[in-house]
From TrEMBL:
This is Adenine DNA glycosylase. InterPro entries: A/G_AdeGlyc_MutY, DNA_glycosylase, Endonuclease-III-like_CS2, Endonuclease3_FeS-loop_motif, HhH-GPD_domain, HhH_base_excis_C, HhH_motif, MIG/MutY. The keyword Iron applies. Belongs to the Nth/MutY family. It catalyses: Hydrolyzes free adenine bases from 7,8-dihydro-8-oxoguanine:adenine mismatched double-stranded DNA, leaving an apurinic site. The gene is mutY. It comes from Pseudodesulfovibrio sediminis. The keyword Hydrolase applies. CDD domains: ENDO3c (cd00056).
Length: 362
DNA sequence: CAGACGTGGCC
DNA sequence: TGGCCAAGTCT
């Protein structure tokens, strides 16, 4: 591979074919940081809408630093990996308190911010500050596993180290950010899972292409198996209001809101499970009155089938005791919009709205 | 270091 | 449909 030609061919292609993403017009540190955190484990096409809404709500880092976690999570609702949002809030507070409100410009300092790892620090350093740092993400690993025709697992320490070294040797000092973005753009648009080698600007530099091994690269570890689980949730209606609770820290979906519920245990019917969960979680005796719908969703390695029931109190009214939540209460259906729910529960809310469940509560 | 952490889209 | 995958980080 001729380094100079490779970089030149790649940048020419990027200049002509790079997507017009909103933060590329003015890559200032805050905008780049926001976009890079949102892009972690997320496809760019999904990021754009969230990015625009975020920048409208939190236009600069001091506005973000002053925000409530509740509002930050609401802006993140549906994107997943919510620790990213909570870490951004922490990082914003750090920048205000420790760095006088100025986003740090040094690789090590950038990486020390919560939620910013090696990749993201490299991306911000190069894109916002023009520093010649590598930014090696899954795209970059895939591209170079093919360019170098790597037989070793590219995610392993040695494989990743090899790619980093090559990237460092290729970065043009005057266009470090563009180079890093160009490799990722190539990985996203051309050198993807189903590669489009006929349109590749660096085809002539690609060892796997020449060896006809493109489809065997990258060499990846065996994937995790998905685990199927059955769960229940209950929408408890009392006096025209609905019970919701806020999930605890150090659990899945920390800080997000939900309807009480849980796993169906062996030998249990879904209805029994709802009643048991209500007793355990909020110490209320309830009656599952009507099956609303079944929502299926996946999170990490789980595929969840969630049976959803409309419930009534089976006892005189009394205050719920939140054993499995930091707080909770009965709210009017129209304000459910204001709370951040995990995707499965959000879909249940949307279903109930569309089926006009909320029009007849009493 | 392996496992946890979300979600929607694709084939 | 079910498994794979996407601009990773943290513990």
């Amino acid at each position: 591979m001729d380094e100079i030609t490779f970089t030149h061919d790649l940048l020419d292609w990027y200049d002509a074919n790079g997507r017009d993403l909103p933060w590329r017009q003015n890559p200032e540190p805050y905008a780049v940081w926001v976009s890079e955190i949102m892009a972690q484990q997320t496809q760019m096409d999904r990021v754009v809408g969230y990015y625009s809404r975020w920048m409208e709500r939190f236009p600069d880092i001091s506005t973000l630093a002053r925000a409530r976690e509740e509002d930050v999570l609401k802006m993140w609702e549906g994107l997943g990996y919510y620790s990213r949002a909570r870490n951004m809030l922490k990082a914003a507070e750090t920048v205000i308190q420790e760095y006088g409100g100025v986003f740090p410009a040094e690789f090590k300092t950038i990486q020390s911010l919560p939620g910013v790892g090696e990749y993201t620090a490299g991306a911000i350093s190069s894109i916002a500050y023009g520093l010649p740092e590598p930014a090696v993400d899954a795209n970059v690993l895939r591209v170079f596993s093919r360019v170098l025709d790597m037989e070793e697992p590219v995610r392993g320490k040695s494989g990743k180290g090899r790619v980093e070294k090559v990237v460092c040797s290729l970065i043009p000092p005057d266009r470090a950010g563009d180079f890093n973005q160009a490799i990722m753009e190539l990985g996203a648009l051309i050198c993807s899972k189903r590669p489009k080698c006929d349109r590749c600007p660096v085809q002539g530099h690609c060892k796997a292409y020449m060896a006809n091994t493109v489809h065997q690269r990258p060499v990846l570890p065996a994937p995790q198996k998905t685990i199927r689980i059955n769960m229940v949730t209950g929408v408890l209606v009392h006096d025209g209001k609905i019970l919701i609770q806020k999930r605890k820290p150090d659990d899945v979906w920390p800080g997000l809101w939900e309807f009480p519920g849980g796993s169906i245990e062996a030998g249990e019917t879904p209805q029994q499970a709802v009643a048991r969960e209500y007793m355990e979680e909020v110490e209320l005796s309830i009656m599952p009155e009507k099956k609303i719908t079944t929502v299926t969703y996946t999170y990490t390695k789980y595929r969840v089938t969630m049976h959803c029931y409309l419930c009534r109190l089976d006892q005189a009214y009394r205050e719920p005791v939140f054993n499995e939540a930091v707080e909770g209460g009965f709210v009017l259906p129209e304000v459910l919009e204001e709370y951040a729910f995990p995707a499965g529960h959000r879909r249940l809310v949307e279903y109930m709205k569309s089926a006009e469940y909320f029009d007849t509560l009493s």
